[in-house]
Amino acid sequence: MFDNFPLWPARAATTAGQVDALYIFLVLLSAFMSVAIFIMILVFATKYRRRHGRQAEPIEGSISLEITWSVIPLGVFLVIFVWGAVIFFRERTAPAGASEIYVVAKQWMWKLQHEEGQREINELHVPLGRDVKMIMTSQDVIHSFYVPAFRLKQDVLPGRYTTMWFHPTKAGTYHLFCAEYCGTQHSGMIGQVVVMEPAQYQAWLGGGTTTGSLAQSGQTLFEQFGCNTCHRFDVQGRGPNLKGLFGKTVQLEDGRSVVADENYIRESVLNPGAKVVSGFKPIMPVFQGLVSEEQLNELVAYVKSLNTPASGAAGTPNLQSPGIQPPTPKE
Ligand code: CUA
């Protein structure tokens, strides 16, 4: 209906229609109430205008009137609340099997890493009709990933991952904005999301040069940093075996339990002492400041790849012990 309306951005994801429907409902409801109130003002102003010999009669409260004007708005607000909550939870919960894109925001650009190993800056290529999950972090201040055509906006915070997902429904090129004031070049922190036909996308994937998948790069780092000397796959090492870890509930030394998600793995690399696994000693060195955000994403992708048995090289244990080498952060 509004596809050609100049103030309305294109709708290019499944979320767009849902958000628009709620938005239109809110606008119509507000418009209806405003018009109704103005009409009542005019009606009452005429009906109860000052006339000679007439006196106002005070009203002495009415329970039924009070119940009516409480219950009807409550019902209307509950409809808005439930409607909004349903959209919110749908937007926040990525479907299983979504392809994953890692995003690192910095002043003032977007850096994107595909699972297949492709890297992009300020440009994101995705295929039409596939679920895409964004796993995002910032290496400096708070940014916000905003794609109006998808009706999606998510803050991107330093020191942790936030996620969002979308399912593109229309091929095209769409604006990507930073929606959180992040410094002098904030307005220049823009880019585009290119939604391509699947065949075109395959061609695009094949076109670039990569150094292997994200998980493979992660495995290289895992060996470079000597993680595999303690996190072993063959025998019980000094650190927990990471095979099949992702998504599991982990018992901690202090009695707590946590789910091993992206944020847990991230924290366990940067600051291993924060959550020590039950039965292990806090002997792992701190990697805060030694790995870049991109390298951290690669390590997270590697640990996740250990869950799927037939993922080629990414699951192969390295039995040699190169010892802990000085890390070589990129950039
Ligand atoms: Cu990044 Cu504004």
Secondary-structure map with pairings?
Layout: H1 14-47, H2 63-92, E1 99-106, E2 109-114, E3 119-121, E4 123-127, E5 132-138, E6 143-147, E7 152-156, E8 162-166, E9 172-178, E10 191-196, H3 198-207, H4 214-224, E11 249-251, E12 257-259, H5 262-270, H6 293-305
Parallel strand pairs: 1-5, 4-10
Antiparallel strand pairs: 1-2, 2-3, 5-8, 6-7, 6-9, 9-10, 11-12
Dinuclear copper ion binds at residues 108, 143, 178, 180-182, 186, 189.
Q: Give the ligands present.
A: dinuclear copper ion
Radius of gyration: 27 Å
Unreliable sequence segments: 310-331
Q: At the first level of CATH, what is the class of the largest domain?
A: Mainly Beta
- Counted by DSSP, the helix tally is 6
Order of helices and strands: HHEEEEEEEEEEHHEEHH
**Main structural class:** alpha+beta
| Morphology call | elongated
Strand composition percent: 15-25%
Arithmetic mean pLDDT: 82
Count of distinct structural domains: 2
N-C termini distance: 48 Å
Order of the strands making up the biggest sheet: 3-2-1-5-8
CATH architecture of the largest domain: Sandwich
The helicity comes to 25-40%
**CATH topology label of the largest domain:** Immunoglobulin-like
CATH superfamily of the largest domain: Cupredoxins -  blue copper proteins
Q: Mind describing the biggest β-sheet?
A: 5 strands, mixed
SS elements, strand count: 12
